[in-house]
Amino acid sequence: MRLELLSPMEMAAVDRRAIADGPFDGLALMRRAGTLVAAEVLVRYPGAAKVHVLAGPGNNGGDGYVIAGLLAESGFAVSLWTSGMPRPGSDAALAAAQCRLERLSLLEFTAGPDELVVDALYGSGLSRPVDGDAARAIALVESLDLPVVAVDLPSGVSGDSGQVSGSAFRAAVTVTFARKKPGHLLLPGRELCGEVVLADIGIDDAVIGEMNIRIFENDPALWRTALPVAQVDTHKYRRGHVGAFSGGPSSTGAARLSALAAARAGAGAVTVLSPANAMQVNAAHLTSIMLRKVSDAHDLAKVQANHPPSAFVLGPGFGIGEKARAFALDILGDGRSNGVEGLVLDADGITSFRDEPSTLFAAAGLEAAPALVLTPHEGEFGRLFPDIAGDETLSKLDKARRAASLSHGTVIYKGADTVIASPEGRAAINANGVPWLATAGSGDVLAGIVAGLLAQGMPAFEAACAAVWMHAEAARRFRPGLIADDLPAALVPVLHELRGQHPKARPQG
Ligand SMILES: NC(=O)C1=CN([C@@H]2O[C@H](COP(=O)(O)OP(=O)(O)OC[C@H]3O[C@@H](n4cnc5c(N)ncnc54)[C@H](OP(=O)(O)O)[C@@H]3O)[C@@H](O)[C@H]2O)[C@@H](O)CC1
Ligand SMILES: [K+]
């Protein structure tokens, strides 16, 4: 799987390196790119009454000249609309010189129903907001509801951030080259790209390998080998023990959702850690999940002394305040020496640190601290990282990476385009989410899955990526109608399948 995501700048560096190394020069790469886009058009829209190719002044436009020529040779009626001449001597200028079609000015652009648009105005070289003739063409195409095949990126969509600059095409298909860019996965870019096709234009994987890329699309290939595999001789505590903190008597459900999810994710034992006044409510709803009273620091110390959980979930339904801060700092301070692998801080656990985030970050940064995993949605992210959240020059990917570095934690920045970032700089963008996953309690389940995997010894970044993907995959398979209570059980077939593909897969004991 080619999961690395290249920023437009990295892609340009890869292009330069590939051209320097050979065997293909820039024009050959461009011809290949154009040929592969033309092939997609042929396969997908063989009956198009007419194809409008819009070619810009850079190499994206160069691809457009190649595409227009090939489609005309294949028998399509092609109109070639250009905006600005390619720089003399550039690959685009060479491609333009080889294209014999009449050039119409984008200024005059017009189209009719049942026609197709190939958008080769701007790709990774987008340098300012799209306006003027290009914006007018975009509006006309949108009003006619014409299908658009975008070359590399829909014009107007930033390859770095997925944000729209000025206006942007909404493509049915986007054909990109060598590797996807973050803008193909981050919103709103992901929606505007339509289906993303990755075309191999002949750039050697080794050239990309040398770039030491640390940003990926989240996919099982990224973490499958790190998934815990139960051994035959295992016993319940060796399969990991999760402690999920419950809130008071009227808010216990969230912790139970986390607990169930942790158990379904494979933790051998799960305990709900409940304040005294919520013990009865919790007891009435738990069967396989254990229950212990933890009202204060003294109770927590007792839990830590005897079969301590190897991972904790703190936050779902817990309540905001000093108790959450004290418990979190206690667990981080207690350290790995006591067998604690990680703390998942979610919801109220995050909000509890809004006035003193540096205390949390300092505790997570101590050498002996267990892994901290933070799971903020946008609002919670802004509470914990106000300066990063408020910086409009940063993409969601940049924000998550900075937050991870600042907090010394793995950050799961949730949303329809969840970004997972590790403190040492790795990041993954998730793309298998479905709208019906946004349901009450869904976040509690995610926190539980992360803790379940951490408790079994899975490293934090891999556990976070795996949890986000499995959570979404379980929801996708369940289909609409899903409520959070359905999710823990819906994880089981997903995990079975993943484990079946594990290189060390063996019968489960
Ligand atoms: N060998 C390779 O490199 C290969 C590259 N390939 C292809 O090249 C593409 C990247 O090419 P690229 O770097 O030339 O950038 P591109 O997207 O054409 O835009 C730059 C031009 O557009 C202009 N411009 C930008 N924004 C604008 C705006 N809003 N409104 C108006 N003008 C605007 C900008 O103007 P400037 O900023 O210079 O003033 C400049 O003239 C890549 O996406 C892929 O399709 C493939 O062929 C495979 C091999
Ligand atoms: K484009």
From TrEMBL:
Q: Which gene encodes it?
A: nnrD
Enzyme Commission identifier(s): 4.2.1.136, 5.1.99.6
Organism ancestry? Bacteria, Pseudomonadati, Pseudomonadota, Alphaproteobacteria, Hyphomicrobiales
- Give a yes or no for keyword NADP in this entry: yes
Cofactor(s) it depends on: K(+); Mg(2+)
Q: Which reaction does it catalyse?
A: (6R)-NADHX = (6S)-NADHX; (6S)-NADHX + ADP = AMP + phosphate + NADH + H(+); (6R)-NADPHX = (6S)-NADPHX; (6S)-NADPHX + ADP = AMP + phosphate + NADPH + H(+)
Protein's job: Bifunctional enzyme that catalyzes the epimerization of the S- and R-forms of NAD(P)HX and the dehydration of the S-form of NAD(P)HX at the expense of ADP, which is converted to AMP. This allows the repair of both epimers of NAD(P)HX, a damaged form of NAD(P)H that is a result of enzymatic or heat-dependent hydration.
Family, similarity comment: Belongs to the NnrE/AIBP family. In the N-terminal section; belongs to the NnrE/AIBP family.
Q: Which Pfam families match?
A: Carb_kinase, YjeF_N
Tell me the superkingdom of the source: Bacteria
Q: How is the cofactor bound?
A: Binds 1 potassium ion per subunit.
Identification of the protein by name: Bifunctional NAD(P)H-hydrate repair enzyme
Q: Name one GO biological process term.
A: metabolite repair
Single GO molecular function:
ATP binding
How would you summarize the oligomeric state and partners of this protein?
Homotetramer.
Q: Where does the YjeF C-terminal domain start and stop, copy by copy?
A: 219-498
InterPro entries annotated for this entry? Carbohydrate_kinase_pred_CS, CARKD, Nnr, Ribokinase-like, YjeF_N_dom, YjeF_N_dom_sf
